[in-house]
Amino acid sequence: MKKLLPLIICAAIIATSAVAQDQKQNPQSPAPSQQPAVAQKDAKAAPDQKAATMQDRAAWEKKFKEDLKLTDDQSQKFDALSKEYADKFDAISKDATLTPEAQKEKKMTLKKEKEGKLMEILTPEQQAKYKEMKESMEKKPDVKQ
Asked: Which one of 53, 74, 83, 132 has the largest count of C-beta atoms within 10 Å of its C-beta?
């Protein structure tokens, strides 16, 4: 009897952790009783997520301008370029006729196009610094879940 109680407790802990890990790996498929709550959370999270993305974009642009020491003229051109391509990216994201793969392809094409125009704005020294910044960003592990 004394050995049975610790065995039951141990089994309960193992079962609980296994279920928790399974739920963490498959967040897209919540239990049926939780689906309405998840839908409500998603509806509320979408504006918050967009605001967070806008803040991230603004923070990146500020860091970009400071690190590359853009002149006022370069800064204005960069802002115009960013606005132009942000609108194009949003239009692609909202286009319901495109598959996710097609959206990704179009966005990658736009990204390369934008980068080409950006290189025209930057001096050779700034271009080298930009490439370093880009490489360091690509090396960082993605923390998003």
From this structure: 74
For residue range 9-68, what is the model confidence (pLDDT) as tens digits?
877 788 777 666 665 555 554 444 444 444 444 444 456 666 666 677 778 788 888 888
* Nearest-angstrom CA–CA distance, 86 and 98: 18
Q: Are 93 and 111 in contact (CB under 8 A)?
A: no
Per the listing, tokens 């700034």 go with: 126
Please check whether residue 93 is in contact with residue 103, taking contact to mean a CB–CB distance below 8 angstroms: yes
> Which token pair is 108?
């990658």
CA pseudo-torsion sign 88, 131, 121, 117 = negative
User: What average pLDDT score do residues 87-114 get?
Assistant: 88
Q: Tokens 């509806």 identify what position?
A: 43
Residue 130 CA to its chain's centroid (Å): 20
Q: Are 127 and 64 in contact (CB under 8 A)?
A: no
Per residue in 72-84, pLDDT (tens digit) is: 898 898 888 888 8
CA-CA-CA-CA torsion sign (35, 36, 37, 42): positive
